[in-house]
Amino acid sequence: MPYHTFECSECIPERAMHAVIKGPGEDLTSCLPLGYLNTIPGTISERGCAYCGAKHVIGAPMKDVIHVSHGPVGCTYDTWHTKRYISDNDNFQLKYTFATDMKEKHVVFGAEKMLKQNIIDCFKAFPHIKRMTIYQTCASALIGDDIAAVAKKVMAEMPDVDIFVCNAPGFGGPSQSGGHHKINIAWIDQKVGTYEPEIKSKYVINYVGDYNIQGDAEIMVDYFQRMGIQVLSTFTGNGSYDDLRGMHLAHLNVLECARSAEYICNELRKRYGTPRLDIDGYGFEPLSASLMKVAMFFGLEKEAQAIIDEETARWRPELNWYAKRLKGKKICLWPGGSKLWHWAHVIEEEMGVKVVSVYSKFGHQGDFEKGVARCSEGALAIDDPNELEGLEAMEMLQPDCVLTGVRPGEVSKKMRIPYLNIHGYHNGPYKGYEGWVRLARDLYNAIYSPIHQLSGMDISKDEIPTDKGFLTRQMISDVNIVDDRTTPSEERPYTGDWDIVTRLRGKTYPKLESQQLGTA
């Protein structure tokens, strides 16, 4: 088994089973890291919690909802505004975040009364919003607050509002993926089937597992609509609360991110008989194949082919331009879950770069199976890495760019390695034909950025003269400075802001002009 042990993790031998290097002839029988297990104590994991996976990833992109976290204010602050889940209602869900702000006294005496008043206050503050999601946190779960009972009381007193309760405390799973599962199941248990949306087409789908990062979902919805398909709901990017209550009426569930949203698709198939079809919106060839798969389900192959031909003709020349200049560059692909395998092969095939490493903080075993299978020989695959392992991997692999999130990305910048934010995106959207070119452009700009090239220059040994600097340097080293402005005017007239005179050591310095001090 080609396990890789990081030097920084030699004191934790269990970590060796969470990293592998794919060697010649290696396959999944001998080259597969362990995934989605409880974090090993002492490894200082950078994973998110189950609450984060439920609220931040799945719930928060719903556009017409007041999202309330029942817990300390830090929980909601940490899950607000770090991804660009845009919407067509003036980005209400991005502008505001809500928390009950539990304190120690609430942990001791309970916080249900406060929660009820907070819910009412929220609806009064935003009377045009009639829908709410309440998220449980570790604090409210540990004391046993009955959030569902409180929500039921409010809905009885305010019959025009509807409230969804998501019990996914931070400790509810090994990582944020545990929260994905909990909110998926809670939504179908509580809300699906409670609303009847209008059906306008013979071809109706739910677009599932897309969160409209910088407009991703809007690009895909546009393709479907051009094919003549009605998108009943998007789970959950730019999604409407009531549309998502009507998911049971769709003819097909089109699933994008299998890691975060396959659970609700599987339940819709079991409970309502709705088929599930997995697609890939990234890369020219996977996207074209995906559009054709959806078209074949409804018999719309001609319409799909027209879109594929038009978009490919428009954007392929630009993609080829970037691919020619990116050929042979090395990248680390360190995303969330599904991008681990969505991108592992196609970014090499269509952009010419070399993927030297893949990792995931919350990917399941199936994600690593697909990701490692699609990687080239020599790639380093890591499950649940920490910062020290990431640093060591970058030193060993010397990539030209790292595709990851903000936290590990800022670490790579300190190592003078550029990064692209593929969680919240630098200049997205990245889905669709134009989006894939946009990713290639951002990758090209990152690698060839003059600023990053300059950042690698070592100027620590450059000679810096110390005898021809500002006069203030000599003054500070020789004497303590006394400013005229501290001297009473009757003893010595004030002669200007920069009339600095000192006689502490028998030295008198002339009046300093502002230019000499480097000020305007």
From TrEMBL:
Catalytic activity: N2 + 8 reduced [2Fe-2S]-[ferredoxin] + 16 ATP + 16 H2O = H2 + 8 oxidized [2Fe-2S]-[ferredoxin] + 2 NH4(+) + 16 ADP + 16 phosphate + 6 H(+)
EC number: 1.18.6.1
Segments traversing the membrane: none
Domain Nitrogenase/oxidoreductase component: from-to ranges: 49-447
Top-level division of the source organism's lineage: Archaea
This protein's UniProt keywords: ATP-binding, Iron, Iron-sulfur, Metal-binding, Molybdenum, Nitrogen fixation, Nucleotide-binding, Oxidoreductase
GO molecular function: ATP binding; iron-sulfur cluster binding; metal ion binding; nitrogenase activity
Cofactor(s), names only, from the UniProt record: [8Fe-7S] cluster; [7Fe-Mo-9S-C-homocitryl] cluster
Binding partners and assembly: Tetramer of two alpha and two beta chains. Forms complex with the iron protein (nitrogenase component 2).
Function: This molybdenum-iron protein is part of the nitrogenase complex that catalyzes the key enzymatic reactions in nitrogen fixation.
Family: Belongs to the NifD/NifK/NifE/NifN family.
Protein name: Nitrogenase protein alpha chain
